[in-house]
Amino acid sequence: MMSWEDNVRKVVPYTAGEQPRGTGVIKLNTNESPYPPAPGVAAKIAALDAEQMRLYPAFPEKTELAAALADYYGIGTDELFIGVGSDDVLCQAFVTFFNSDKPILFPDITYSFYDVWADLYRIPYKRQPLDENFLIRKEDYIPRESGMENGGIVFPNPNAPTGVLMSVSEIEEIVAANRDVVVIVDEAYIDFGGTSCLPLIHKYDNLLVVQTFSKSRAMAGMRIGYAMGNPRLIKYLNDVKYSVNSYTMNYTALQLGVESVKDTAYFNECCEKIVRTRETAEKELTRLGFTFPKSYGNFIFAAHGSMPAKEIFEKLKENDIYVRYWNKERIDNHLRITIGTDEQMQALYRALENIL
Ligand SMILES: *Cc1c(COP(=O)(O)O)cnc(C)c1O
Q: 306 CA to middle of ligand 1, Å?
């Protein structure tokens, strides 16, 4: 007997970190910012005109948000695609650009949404192992060196959850060696001390750089992400996006996003604070017996010398401190600890002292 279930598109969904609510919780598990969005965002919320919601929203590329982002990065609005968080942007990019019979490539330890989208859209893929220090092996992505052809490439820089940064020159080598496919660089964490490969979009029409408001701009709840690349890449992305939904971004997000982009001073101050707290965390975690690769994100990916990560994870949770743990090959003895405020981090070190 046939069942409708035979024709269901089955997929194992991405599992996001827990979202406990409540005042007592110290939430260091999903790389959110510990600071509020730019003050102009709250002011704009108070001034929003509910009457406007009667109307369909503007097309993202025609909005003040697009103009503000283009101005911030010194690019044209035709080089910019805006979506509902970078997860939406990345997903649309997978559908739009990864249609080859050859496998797309990404690291074995990386953002665990990539294989979910690939499975969902039946895109063949191959995971290229990081080296023993969690570095991406550049040569694995260069066909003439690896002997391996591909249908596209995607990786975060800095990588997640390791925090390891790749240099712009190495990225350029990868992009230059793969001119026949699209290379997506997911820069969700680039504002915490890394150097963006954005300038390369003017040299390579096969490079798409993706960023988000969710981490450095403290607006994960508003869902704004964007991609930057050659106008032809952007046009193809928009064609797909507008084939799913003509009104892709909600009015509120478009209005509030602008306020964040306009306040460069506040943005820089928050990023610098997080970097300083990360530097202290490196010292404190080392003192407590952890080892970790140098992180360029708003998190540290750490293993302890004697106590298993799972045990530390569970004991921290009993203390209402949430960090991220994956029971997965190669990383099941690591914790990803988001950088919180100095006060939150002090509470973490105290709890770790007791646990260890
Ligand atoms: C957080 C994250 C994203 C997605 O964030 P959005 O909230 O959807 O913008 C994408 N890539 C990586 C590597 C991330 O860590």
A: 31
- The whole-number average pLDDT for the span 235-258 is 94
CA torsion sign for 285, 289, 293, 294 is positive
Among protein residues, the one whose CA lies closest to atom 11 of ligand 1: 188
Apex CA 235: angle with CA 229 and CA 236, to 5°?
95
Nearest CA to ligand 1 atom 1: 188
Q: Name the residue with the closest Cα to ligand 1, atom 2.
A: 188
pLDDT of amino acid 247: 85
Distance 47 CA to ligand 1 centre (A): 29
Look at residue 21 in the predicted model and tell me its pLDDT. 81
pLDDT in tens, 197-228: 999 999 999 999 999 999 999 999 999 999 99
The protein residue whose alpha carbon is closest to atom 12 in ligand 1 is 188
Inter-CA distances, 27 with 80, 160, 334, 346, Å: 32, 18, 17, 13
Quick check: 242 pLDDT over 80?
A: yes
How many Cβ atoms from other residues are within 10 Å of residue 46's Cβ? 6
Q: Which helix (H) or strand (E) holds 348?
A: helix 342-355
What's the CA-to-centroid distance between 189 and ligand 1, angstroms? Answer: 8
Beta carbons within 8 Å of 30's beta carbon, 6+ residues apart: 16, 17, 19, 220, 324, 338
168 vs 23, residue with greater confidence: 168
Residue matched to tokens 């952890």: 290
Q: Say how many CA atoms lie within 13 Å of 348 toward its Cβ.
A: 29
Is the Cβ atom of 212 under 6 angstroms away from ligand 1? Answer: yes
Q: Whose CA is nearest to atom 14 of ligand 1?
A: 188
Indicate whether residue 188 lines ligand 1 (CB < 6 A). Answer: yes
273 has pLDDT over 90 = yes
Considering the entire predicted model, what is its pTM?
0.97
Ligand 1, residue 212: give the atom nearest the CA. 9
* CA distances for 124 relative to 12, 101, 103, angstroms: 16, 7, 5
99-151 pLDDT tens trace: 999 999 999 999 999 999 999 999 999 999 999 999 999 999 999 999 999 99
Distance of CA 232 to the CA centre of its chain: 23
